[in-house]
Structures are given as C-alpha cells and as structure tokens.
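Researcher: I'm preparing a figure for a lab meeting and need a structural model of a single chain. I don't have an experimental structure, so a prediction will have to do for now. The sequence is pasted below. Please return the structure as tokens so I can convert it later.
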Amino acid sequence: MSSRALRPTLLVQLLIFAAAVYAALAAGLAVAARDVSLRFERQVLEEVTSQRASAVARLFMRAIHADWNDVATLAPSVAPAEAARARPALDLVVGDGERISWAGIAALDGTVTAASNGMLEGASVTGRPWFDEGLRGPFAGDVHDAKLLANLLPRDEDGAPKRFLDLAAPIPGPDGRAAGVVGFHVNFAWARRYLEETAGMVGIEAIVVDREGTVVIGPESLQGATFNLASIRAASVGAQSAVVETWPDGVSSLSAVVPSMTWRDLPAFGWSLVARVDPALLAEQRQGAERGFQLVLVLAAAGAFVATLLFGWLVAQPFDRLSRSAERIADGEDEYPAESRRTADLARFSHALARLQARRG
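Model: Understood. Here is the structure written out token by token.
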C-alpha cells in the first residue's frame, strides 16, 4: 500500500476539522452555561429566600399584633380601682393558655388588681419589665423565664418552665398620666411553634435574633446563644444580607437577613430574622436544565456535523472525480475530464485537465 493511499481525503480532513471545532465549541459553551447557571441559581435562591423570609416575618409579627390589639383596646377601657370587672375579659383572652399564658392589670403601685384565673391578684409586680416599661408607654418585651408564675402555671410539654414574651400598655388616668398597666404574657412555646410551622410551609428555617446577636427564637441547639457569623453580625446591626455559611450546628446554608421585624403599631422587639435554606435547594432543577442544555448542544453539534458532511461531499466529490480523471489521463487513457463549475477552483482544475488532454491528442 502506497503512502498516498494512507493520506486522508479532503472530505475526511474537513470532517475531522469540523468535529474538533464543534467539540471545542460545545465544551466551551457547556462550561460557560454552567457558570452562568450557578450564578443565576445563587441569585434566584437569594431572592426567593429573602422574599420567603420577609413573608414569614410579617406573618409572625401580624400574629403577635393580634394580641397587641387586645392589650391596646383593653387599656383605655378599664380603671385599676375597678379592674375586677375586667376579669371575665382577661379570662377570655387567656382561654386554654396555649397562646396567652397570663393577662393582668396592675395599679400604679404595682399591685395586681385583676388577672386571668385570679393568678397573682394582690401580688406586687414592681420591678418586672412589663410593668416598669408599661408605665412609660407601649412595651414589647423579649423572651424571659417565668418568675412569679413559675409555680402557678403548668410546665411546657418538654418539662421546662414557662417562658414568655411580654406585651404591655399604660392605663390612662383622668389627668392623662398612667394610672396602671395592662400586661399579657405571650406563651413562648406557642410563638416558637408558630414561627417554625410558618417557615416550614415555605421551605425555610427561621431564626429570630436580637440586637446583641443572640438567638431569641430558633432551633433548640442554637437557642440563647450568640455566634460570630456574617448573617448574625448583619442582623445585630439591622442590615440586609445574604451569605452562604456554616453554622455551629453543622448546617451549611444560605442565610438571608430580614433586618427589622415590625407590624403596624406593634411596639418594637428589636428583632431581626435570619432565614436558613439549603444551597442545594435548586440543584435538582439546575441539573435538569443543564441536561436539557447539553442535549440541545449535542443535537446542534450533530446537526452542524451532518450539514458539514453534506457540504463537504458536495464540494469534495467533484475534486475527487477530477483527481481520478487526472490519474487516468496520466496513465495514458483517452479521457476527456468532466467539467465542473461548482467553484472557481474546480472550474480552473477541469479546464486545465482538458487543455492537457487536448495537447496530448
């Protein structure tokens, strides 16, 4: 076999070149598409998480605002000296105690003059934050353990003592000054459960953080702790943020911060909300999109290769026919080469062969 027979034809070389170009182009597009897809995925995840976190924060604060409405409505309608008349309303507010653990009215000297189920009536609440701050104006107090009520209320389901959020408002006297305070103890277990269930419905984990960076409401393993994390630092200064980080409980997440949790005239607790979500939340969708894009690339490359094959055959076939005709002329056969005007090169080639054959004749 001659070395000439081992050389690839024009069509083969064209197809090899086309295959290399299409493969390189497809690989480059696949890498670029994946990079764009990852950036888009992160952007979408941040936006979705922030929106869900904001919705959860609003729903949670709106739920507490419903209790604040009861406080704000009750305060101007009672007088501490006649507070006993309000006891049925206080009992109705507390109900089974699942949501509001205790509701009461305290006179200016701190003596409880009326309370749900009569608990703490006659006791002094002077020094308790809800009373002291409630004399000054509308008050929303952070989570704290039960003190005076610790032995009067049943423990939580896990056996722990009751914990409360405080809501309080001053009772206006005839001169416009505070004559007493209406106070509610919101059951912390209910608040925590409500937040967890609401966040769970939209696929995030919600953590409430105060201005000191302490977890006020969150997973048991994080409750009451302060962490040096970017999201916690942002929350403690009331700044919006979204960052991927690993928490002390080992959870790697995208953490989005809602800098302020408020609703209408509800007194500020000074809280921010940090929403955690698994960064791989959109991975399945992204992988499906990538597979679809890769399939499109393969089909496009295959279509381009077939088009190149057809084009190459249309161009190279006349060259092959003329080259074989030239070989036969060189071998002395009396053959007039076929004319081809498909390209200028082919036309010159066939014309030159014709002239050579004419000279031989």
